[in-house]
Amino acid sequence: MPEPQFDQATYDKKCKARQAKNKVRMMHHHAYLAKDMEETRKFYEDLLSMPLIGTWIERTNPVTGEPDNYIHTFFELGDGSCLAFFQFKNVKQNADHAIQRFEQINPFTHHIAIEVTDDEALQDYRKRLDEADYPYVLTDHGYLSSIYLHDPNGMQVELTTRVPNTDVMMARAGDDARSILDRWMAEDDVPTNNFERGAGWVAKDAKA
Ligand SMILES: [Fe+2]
Q1: What is the pLDDT of residues 61-87, one digit of tens each?
Q2: pLDDT digits over 120-172, tens only?
Q3: Which residues are in the CB-under-5-Å shell of ion ligand 1?
Q4: Please, which of 20, 26, 57, 84 could form a disulfide with 31 given CB 3.0 to 4.6 Å?
Q5: Nearest CA among 107, 57, 109, 53 for reference residue 81
């Protein structure tokens, strides 16, 4: 059967209607532990241009209910959502709570993807990273184009942008999303449904 013709206006209307019903409105913040808050500030504010918009010093730990001393910061994205970070004054306590003790994490274990406006912005970030001699990996997902890098805390950050094929691929995938999941859960060897990219995506370029 031929692929149904993609119509941008119809797809946009369908997405808007689905999203309007959703009371979970947007990401407010994502939080991670910082090894060094000033190094973290330099990375997010100076390198990625995400302004530091709030810094709280907390003297009670709400998890233990005991007196404590930690800092909590918020770095803002263009939609008002934030990447947030904590750092405890007690270095051992800080390291004990950290995921992999701030070792650079595998992207399958955890990563946070933040969207930039367009490919021009993505290329601008790439230039900045090159100038700063900061390591990264480029990846073409088919439906997104991304730069992967680790922040100073070992957290993997994905800078991503939509590409001309994004909506077409998402529209095609959307109607079958649940049935594909069910099939993958039930069967051991399911072929890829991502025909644009072949067997799977690979990093296309890396700056070590
Ligand atoms: Fe991702």
Answers
A1: 999 999 999 999 999 999 999 999 999
A2: 999 999 999 999 999 999 998 888 999 999 999 999 999 999 999 899 989 88
A3: 113, 158
A4: 84
A5: 53
Beta bridge partners of 88: 70
Kindly tell me if the per-residue pLDDT of 9 is higher than 80.
yes
CA–centroid distance, residue 81 to ligand 1 (Å): 18
- Give the containing element (helix H, strand E) for 129: helix 119-131
Instruction: Write down the domain spans for the chain.
Output: 26-97, 104-185+196-208
Residues 26-97: name the CATH superfamily.
2,3-Dihydroxybiphenyl 1,2-Dioxygenase, domain 1 (3.10.180.10)
For residue 178, how far is its CA from the centre of ligand 1 (angstroms)? 20
- Are the CB atoms for 88 and 68 separated by under 8 Å? yes
Q: Is the pLDDT of residue 208 over 60?
A: no
CATH number, domain 104-185+196-208: 3.30.720.110
**Cα–Cα distance measured from residue 100 to residue 109, given in angstroms and rounded to the nearest whole number:** 11
Q: What is the mean pLDDT of residues 52-62?
A: 97
Q: How far is the CA of 137 from the centre of ligand 1 (A)?
A: 12
